[in-house]
## 1
Amino acid sequence: MTESAAALREPWTSLEDQRRVAMFGMWTFIASEILFFGALFMGFSVVRVLHPAAFAEAAGHTNIWYGSANTAILLTSSFAMVMGLRAADLDLRRLAALCLAVTAVLGLAFLIVKGFEYKDDIDKHLVPGQDFALKAGAAQIFFSFYWGITAVHAVHLTIGIVLVSRLAWLLMRGDIAMRSPQFEVTALYWGFVDIVWITVYPLIYLGGGRS
Amino acid sequence: MSDASRSAHPATTRKGVAAAWRRNGIVWLVLLALQAGSLAGAYASFGHWALPLDVGIGAVMVLIVGIFTMGLEKTTALNRLTAAAGFVFVLVMFALTLGDVYTRL
């Protein structure tokens, strides 16, 4: 069986059609996700316009170093992901598996750093509620967005880690055709998760450096 | 791409890998440099320009990831249109909502 035949799935009769539709499906999903995260960012921006001082104070209580470390980790993971994709394209199974494994490990590293950050935030009483540490009411709204946006992003990243780990595992076992469109679709999803974080970073963390 | 064309000569494969490391490595370094720039900017006082600067650098980074990592440069016109539709409608949502908020302040 050729590589193309091994990668082909019903109802497609050509791998190119299958790839084209798979990519279009993922781009459509990403466009809907852009609108979902866009609504969250818009809500954040509106409250920021209405309460600039409280948001600046609240941003000063985020940890810019955790945020920066995680941005660098995700950018590096995307580099590994795109190299894995290229290696698969060149039929280099071991290199592709290695790059995807590195991508998944970096994704896990992001979640571990995020875990430390969440622990610090909880210790500092930065969870909205009765014991909230800051006086300004709108600071609670800032941290509601902070917890909501970063948690939803973490869920997306976790899904990405599962998808990438699965591909790395299948590659190592030799159970997936190198021409499968799954590589491109997964890489696309990972890039989107990266883009969301690149948008979160200036909105939530960078203001903290100036306070 | 046919199966035959994928069974490339080892030298061609080596060149392909080297080119990919070079190209994607440069993209990665540019992204890290932009992030370092925005982090350094977070400790400078740019006044009212601070947020536009942060968001501007973020937008450039998003564009770079979209074009080079997500492959917008070589995908089909339909996929580019789909991605653009997502961004355009977010921009419309921001313009209408913030336009309303600012006129009420």
Note: Chain B touches chain A through 55 residues (CB under 8 Å).
## 2
Amino acid sequence: MTKDTPATKFQPPVQLDIVIPIYGRLDFLEHCLYNLPKAAKDIVFRVCALDNASPEVGADKIVMKAFPNAYFRRSRENLGFPKGCNVAMRMGHAPLVLFLNTDCFLEKNSIQIMVEDMIIDPQVGAVGPKLLFPEGSPNGTAEKIQHAGLDTNINGEIIHTFIGWSADNERVMKQAEPLALTGACLMTRRRLFVEAKGFLEDYGMGTYEDVDYCLTLRASDYKIIYEPRAIGYHYVGASAIENKMQFPLNQNYQLFRLRWNNRIPWTEWSRQ
Amino acid sequence: MAKILYISDMDITGSGYMNISIPLCLGLVEKGHEIIVLGLAYKNSEHHFPFKLVAMKTFIEVGAAVHNLRLLWKPDLIIAALDIPWHDLILRQVIRDQPAIPYFGIFPVEGDPLCMDWAMILMQMTKQYAISQFGTDECQKQGVMAEHFQVGIDTVAWRPPTPEERKALRDAAGFEEEDRIVLTVADNQERKALGIAFQSIAEARKTIPHLKYALVTRENNTQGFKLRSLASRDDIAIHDILYIFERGMEFKKLWSMYAIADAFFLPSKAEGLGMPLLEAMAVGLPCVATNCSGMSELLSDGRGYLIKPEFVYPDVFGNANRYMIAPWRAAECLELVLNAKHPQMVQDALDYVQARSWQIPVDMIDKAIKDTIK
């Protein structure tokens, strides 16, 4: 629900829960929340935020000030990204769920466009926007592609297709069905997410849970859609950099390969 | 319309194969063909080509990709532009997969004679295309019925500078009017004979005042010369005479290098063709090169100075003869080129490159595709 809706009037049902796991970088959180109303346009949404035991306090005030009807919970310990998302998702009830990192800033109409993709085609299991590097990101050049879907190279390694390319390159501008999407900004259906038992919590602090989830959807013949008309900026790893966190990349990659070995298609070639 | 699986070296920092493959693929797409390029050494950098370009790190990956794409995409034929031993690696994979698929190979023959082992690799191809007349002739001597793939050049992009452009570029680069700039564009590898180039420049500077030497190369190739050490040995003071530029520069900068130069020098011991010679000719530079293999046909008939090799020896890497020039002889040629104007030679060279349109090889390959898959 947008924050300007008067509480006394008829309240349309919430269409979308925006699930935001928080770990530090409250400045980014503010920016992320600030962009949501314009990004959602006519979509009725509710913020479901989980403070994953941030070193800083005050996330609750920021969230509740921006969206008084938000659901907020603070965990005593850092549950990691997958479990944190699962817990926060369970706070809401909307049929659609958008997982959104605090260092991801969505542009005007982006959420509305993604919701439309989900509504138009019931076989769409997940939608993700075009994400660009913002000014000041240590991970890439500003305004260049950070995420345009994830694919596999001939070795079965997960790659960020078109990373570093111009945002208006004709290949990047095409809606596509990549292998997977980043969990930094991923919209899906609550029903499918619950059926899949959420993000696999065995991935601990996180990485690969998003790809794993998308492969689960694909295995049930749901489409994974990269939507270039929806645009956002993704700083990448803001909380991890600030708090010197390390993700179990190798361990999670091994787990991912164990789970999906022999079932990972080569997808890079079809998108190039 | 055919579905073409194209394989080549697509290293954007400097690859002769890429300079051949891109115009050819663009021409074939224009003819209506659909192309997926498996690009060795391509690192997913941004492009706008109207064909798919997939990064490949190794030939093992190429083999796997060929196998997968034959199942997933079902190409009508394979075109590969590679050195002959690399064709062997691809052909082994292609032959293993049934049914057989037509395979067109584009390749250089750098030296003579074509060894029988390599001729046997070429014989497994549906069509063989050598990138020089020299290579075509050498193939035919060994019973390989190769055709000449006449590499084109875009003479709109590679054009002579106007006098004003040339002066402005030289001023910007800090060269004086009296400076005589010799340019070499060549990788830092054994075959390119950069050691001989340095010796030749050292010799030439004894008689040519204000001689400068600009070299576009790969300075830090682990298997190449330590160029600055080599320059010290030959007494070419680094900042006085020698200017080394790293290859992979954008087109405009590379063209500017040709545009400011007074002569082009390629002392290679062997060349499959010598693409930089074509570029230099198109920019209106008088050229000096070793009289051997692919270089001879480019500069013959008065289109440039061909240096008579001093001796010939068989080489393990090339599996063929290598031709060594003497530095004093190269210095003599450079002196001839730099101390006089050569309008007829330059004009003949320009006329020659202008006749080398990309349309010729594109039409030839297009016809061969249609004949093969009909």
Note: The interface with chain B takes residues 153-155, 159, 162-166, 169-170, 266, 268-269, 272 of chain A (CB under 8 Å).
